[in-house]
Write a structure and sequence with these properties.
This protein is of the alpha/beta class. The chain has two domains: 4-267, Spore Coat Polysaccharide Biosynthesis Protein SpsA, Chain A, CATH 3.90.550.10; 271-353, no CATH class. It contains eleven helices and 17 strands. Helix 6 (205-215) crosses helix 7.
Amino acid sequence: MRHLYALIMAGGGGTRLWPLSRREHPKQVLALTEDRTMFQVTVDRLSGLIPPEQIFVVAGRSLAPLLRDSTPQIPVDNFIIEPEGRDSGPAAGLGTYAIHSRDPDAVVAVLSADHHIANEDRFICALRAAHNYAIRGLIVTLGIEPLYPATGFGYIQRGNLLDECGEFSVYKSIGFTEKPDETTATRFVASGKYSWNAGMFIWQTSRAIDEFARQQPEMDSIFRYMLTGRNDVDDKWQTVNKLSLDYAIMEKAINVVVIPVDIGWTDVGNWATLFAVLRHDDHGNAMRSNSDQHLNIDTHDTLIVSDKMVVTIGMENVVIVDTDDAILVCQKDRAQDVKQVVQHLKAVGQEGRL
C-alpha cells in the first residue's frame, strides 16, 4: 500500500463546544477524549498503516502552526493551507489535487480530525479493505451502523451486496440523505438498509478529480490554479462555492460503494456526544478536568469540565463547562443549542469571546 495516503480535514470551529472550543483554539487542538489533542489522536491511530510523510492536512492559516507543532513527524510541506474555510467540499478537493500532484497513483483516505473511534484496530482493517476497492476505481465510504434515529447525521442507503472482504461486506451505495427529520430517521434505522454518513471516503485521486471536473468544473479550475503558487491564489479561493463534500460530489458520484462498520465511532460535535465517550462514575457522571476536588452530591448523568473545584447538589442530565472568562450550564439534551450562544455573541459584537 505504498500509494495509500491520508487527508485529514482539520477545519471547522467547533462552535457547539463553546466556551472551551474557541476560534483560535478549536476542538481539534484540545485534549477532549484523551490526554492528547483530537488531532494528535487522529494522526496516531494511522500509525502502522500510513507513514507520516504520506499524511496530509488541510487547515486554516491560523490553525496550521498549532497542528504542525503538535505533530512534528508530519512534514511541514504536507500542511495544505485554506485561505478561508469554504466547507468540506473545497477542502477535500484542494487536498486531493495537492496529493495527486505529488503522486498520480495515490489512493487517499479522507478523514476528520474530530472523530472518536473506540475500536482503532477494526478501523485500520476497514481502511485496508476499502483500499482494495478504491484501487479498482470505486469511491468507498465507511458507513457507521446507526445506534438510534439521529437527525444530526447524514445517511447512506445500501443497495445490493457486491462482495465480501474478510469480516466486511461491500454494498452498492444508492443514495445519500442529509440530516433527515426524526420520522424519516426512524424509518431509515428500522429498515436496516441505512448507515450513518461519517464523512470518511477512500478514493483514487484520479477518480476523485474526474468527479470534480464533471460535477464542479469551476472548482476543478480553481484547484488547478491554486497549485500554481501564484500570488493571487487567495483571491481566487474566495470565488469557490461553499459546499459540503456530500453536496459537491458524493450525492451524484458514480460507482460508489459503502462498507458498514462497527468501530465505536462518535462525532465529538457537542457536549452531549463528548459526555457519551468519556468514562463515567457509578452515578453516570463524567469529568474532564485536571482537578480531583469535585464534589457531587445526589448528582447523576452530569458532565463537568473545569479545572476548579465544582460542587453539585441534586443535579441530573446537566452540562457544566467552566473557563477563565465564561461558564456554560445547560441541560444535556439542549447541547445542540450552544450554537445559538455563538450566534448571539456574533450579533451583539462579542466576537472576542468566540
